[in-house]
Design a protein that fits this description.
- Strands 5-4-1-6-10-7-11 form a seven-stranded mixed sheet, with helices on both faces. Strands 2-3 form a two-stranded antiparallel sheet.
- The protein is built from nine helices and eleven strands.
- Strand 8 and strand 9 form a beta hairpin.
- By secondary structure, the chain is of the alpha/beta class.
- The chain has a single domain (4-240), classed as Spore Coat Polysaccharide Biosynthesis Protein SpsA, Chain A (Alpha-Beta Complex).
Length: 242
């Protein structure tokens, strides 16, 4: 039977929102809410928080959350997940963003359930997407846009709207920031250096595309998560979770 592990990368030093994982929502730190939602996913055999900060580790210890300490130099959350995954035995790993306290366990299960189904050969990861309907959301650089081929393999990602609407109105899709990797896939990700497009766009999934690997996109019904990128987002989530 396949073993699938959920890992939540969490760092304290964020340029836009320092200390974000410990921001309180209903008297609990945000990281607890993410962990609690992940534990509800039926396909995950275990869940860990991967961090480089003792403040986050101490908070997790008080709440009986399993943690793995990692190095502080990681440029992306998936690099942190890759280090943490090397200490575990699993067939697949799901990278669950630490700033989505309302993440749906159903979404996690959709990604977890499709990793070993689709990942073989050059495909090492699956990633969710959902349609963007408002112009405001399409133009928001915090929403990573994705285009894909007829088989739903990713062609490109961008913080700018893609495809460019020159000839006709196009449908825009948002990449949902939860990634399912095969175990060898997450280790492969961690072994590659960042290249030009990833560095320019600050989109970690380019790590695979720029090295010739395939990313399988999975359509997600509705908008299953609300990421907290700013203190304003936090207030919105607090109000929704009252």
């Amino acid at each position: 039977m396949s073993k699938i592990i959920g890992i939540i990368p969490a760092r304290y030093q964020s340029s836009r929102f320092p200390g974000k994982p410990l921001a309180e929502i209903n008297d609990r730190p945000m990281i607890w809410h993410v962990y609690n939602q992940a534990k509800k996913a039926s396909l995950l055999d275990d869940v860990y928080v991967a961090t480089d900060d003792f403040r986050i580790m101490d908070a997790c210890d008080e709440l009986n959350i399993k943690t793995i300490m990692t190095a502080s130099h990681h440029p992306t959350g998936s690099d942190r997940v890759a280090e943490a995954a090397r200490t575990l035995m699993a067939d697949a790993v799901v990278n669950i963003q630490g700033d989505e306290p309302m993440i749906s366990p159903i979404l996690i299960d959709i990604i977890a359930g499709n990793v070993l189904k689709y990942c073989a050969g050059s495909c090492k990861t699956v990633n969710g997407y959902t349609e963007l309907k408002s112009r405001k959301n399409i133009d928001n650089p915090n929403n990573v846009k994705v285009i894909f081929d007829k088989d739903e393999n990713a062609i490109a990602f961008s913080r700018y709207p893609i495809p460019y609407e020159k000839g006709r109105t196009a449908v825009s899709y948002r990449q949902i920031g939860i990634y399912g990797f095969t175990y060898d896939g997450i280790n492969l990700f961690g072994s590659f250096p960042q290249r030009e497009i990833e560095l320019a766009e600050e989109i970690e999934m380019y790590r695979f595309l720029e090295n010739g690997y395939t990313i399988k996109m999975i359509g997600i019904p509705g908008d299953q998560s609300i990421p907290v990128d700013t203190p304003e987002d936090l207030e919105k989530v607090r109000n929704l979770m009252k």
